[in-house]
């Protein structure tokens, strides 16, 4: 039988501490007794993930993000995750330096670029 005594659960967002480069989820409840709703959220701003559509001119090979990323979850071209150029990458799609990414293949008419990253 499941434990229904919510007072025995720790919803503390600081214990245990998050690993380096990560944040713990903050849990909240509706305050009702018995507790009927539990939800979680992650604070926005620095340290959170940010999504933006990036404008790249047709025929161009560079795009600039609004912020300099500390971690990139992904850069997408037409909904497909592109492969970053890292040591040993077989067929990379882009490199990044600061807030600017450089494509290995120029943008085509109709291409849509999205980036998801933290800064």
How would a crystallographer describe the biggest sheet?
4 strands, antiparallel
Beta-strand residue fraction:
25-35%
Name the helix and strand elements from N-terminus to C-terminus, one letter apiece.
EEEEEEEEE
| Mean residue pLDDT | 79
Oligomeric form: single chain
Gyration radius over CA: 20 Å
Distance between the termini: 44 Å
Number of strands: 9
List low-confidence stretches: none
Residues in helices, as a percent range = under 10%
Shape: elongated
Strand order of the largest sheet: 3-9-5-6
| Number of alpha- plus pi-helical segments | 0
User: How many discrete structural domains?
Assistant: 2
Which secondary-structure class do the elements indicate?
Answer: mainly beta
Could you describe the 3D structure shown?
With 119 residues, the chain is mainly beta. It has 2 domains: 43 residues, no CATH class; 70 residues, no CATH class. The protein is built from no helices and 9 strands. The protein is elongated and about 60 Å long.
